[in-house]
Amino acid sequence: MHTFIYNGSFEGWLTAVFEIYEYNINEEVVIVKDAIYQPSLLTQEHIVTPDDTKAKRVWNGLKQKLSPRALETLYHSFLSEDKGIENQMLQYARLVFSNKLTIEHNFSNSAILKITQTAQKVRRERHRMTAFVRFQLTSDGLYYALVEPDFNVLPLIIKHFKDRYADQRWLIYDNYRKYGIYYNLQTVEIVEIAFTESNASSGAILYDEKEALYQQLWQQYFSSVNIKARKNTKLHIQHMPVRYWKYLTEKRDFM
Asked: Quick check: 235 pLDDT over 70?
């Protein structure tokens, strides 16, 4: 058996699919996130390094044979983070590439049915987030909201909130996945809030919904980023690597 170990990004999954074909592997194959992989003597390991060229080739190949809705369905199923979804998606992709006719409506196939049903659950969660996110306001004019969606839907709600609240700075933070989307009146940035060990105990500030504590958190952040000399602040916001977020549904050149 061959195990392709990837970094958990959609680009990484696409790269893994490319390399499975590149190495012409016909034996049993599984794709697994590096964060949960358990080494085994019974499998041949392949470490996948996300590669934009390889990922784009796979995506373009899928794009030629699937409708925009089916492409969206595949991506949405990935955001479910369901255990083993990467391998259901691999089966789906293999069906696409091995058939001349479209397979996206062949629900008698277990992989196609699974991908479709999973994507529907993700879309329902996206709808709930757009309907039920409630912002609170800090003293410096930042609207913030904590959420804990069942699935990783923040990438899917960016356009909705950017369009609806274009004249306000806001942050929606996924308390479970430890990252957020932050709108600065111009662009939306993917951010993480990181605490060092020395102030880990103060991390409670992030999770306490009391207004005063949130104001303290964001005042500290915005003060620190406006002072160039204070580069090593204990509390800081880091951008998620850009390559993880190239393949968002609102990116028109992708979809």
From this structure: no
- Provide the Cα torsion 139, 190, 192, 215; round to 10°: 0
- Residue 183 CA to residue 181 CA, distance in Å, equals 7
100 and 192: one domain? no
**And the tokens for 9?**
């990004």
Report helix, strand or coil for 243: helix
Beta bridge partners of 182: 171, 189
Q: Which residues contact 145 (CB under 8 A, 6 or more apart)?
A: 133, 134, 135, 136, 170, 171, 172, 173
- 137/121 same-domain check: no
For position 156, what pLDDT does the model report?
A: 95
Residue 203 pLDDT level (bands cut at 50, 70, 90): very low
Q: How many domains does the chain have?
A: 2
Same domain, 218 and 234: yes
Provide φ and ψ at 156, rounded to 5°: -90, -10
Beta-bridge mates of residue 89: none
Q: Which H or E run includes 6?
A: strand 2-6
Decide which of 68, 102, 125 is a domain's last residue.
Answer: 125
- Residue 109: give the domain boundaries: 2-125
| 191-201 per-position pLDDT tens digit | 887 644 444 33
**95-110 pLDDT tens trace:** 999 999 999 999 999 9
- Structural domain includes residue 255: no
H or E segment to which residue 145 belongs: strand 142-147
